[in-house]
Amino acid sequence: MERKTFKTFGLFASAALITAFSACQNKETKTTETKKTDSTQAVSSTDKIVFINQDSLLTKYEYYKDLKVKFEGKTKSAQSDMQAKGQAFQREVAQYQQTAGNLSADQRKETEERLARKQQELQTYQQNAGGALQNEQAVETEKLYDKVAGYLKTYAKEKGYKMVLTYSKGNSAILFADESLDVTTDVIKGLNAEYSKK
């Protein structure tokens, strides 16, 4: 069984959170025309830009942690199931190999065809199980995205923030940011409070 068939939830969720953070301002972009002038308007000092540490959010957001545990369990269960089915098939093949000399040519042919069908069914089952798990993860990732993006939209509006960026160690467009712009703790607190109500 290929391990890549059953990816852990963290990979999906990480990508979703990166998108969620940057999407808060993109979803609400207005498409109004403005008159062109020779000078560009500078960002006002009252326009606030803040950032969230994605690594901290992934380790402290209770909803994400619950999803991660859920999908780790499902992945482990699916792997155990496939391993058990694979071992049962291998035992059946080994048993046939031991008794093949005692069977007639027709019996060997029939048994080999049956084992070939069973192997194909096992491969199809593995692909379907992996696909079903990935589809379920995709649905949950979308829900995670919606929760974070929805909360950040409200949070930014209440605080008067014009943009919410995301920071992740080793994968960030932010090379430097003043720590006073880090609202991660506040956002995690709000997300967890919202999640605990449900």
Automatic annotation (TrEMBL):
Give the signal peptide range: 1-22
Checking PROSITE patterns in the record gives: PROKAR_LIPOPROTEIN (PS51257)
- Coiled-coil stretches are 108-135
One cellular component (GO) term of this entry: cytosol
Which Gene Ontology MF annotations are present?
unfolded protein binding
Q: Name one GO biological process term.
A: protein stabilization
Q: Does the keyword Signal apply?
A: yes
Q: Which UniProt keywords apply?
A: Coiled coil, Signal
Any one Pfam family match given in the protein's UniProt record, by short name? OmpH
> Key word Signal present in the record?
yes
Family from the record: Belongs to the Skp family.
Q: Know the name of this protein?
A: Periplasmic chaperone for outer membrane proteins Skp
- This protein's species is Pedobacter rhizosphaerae
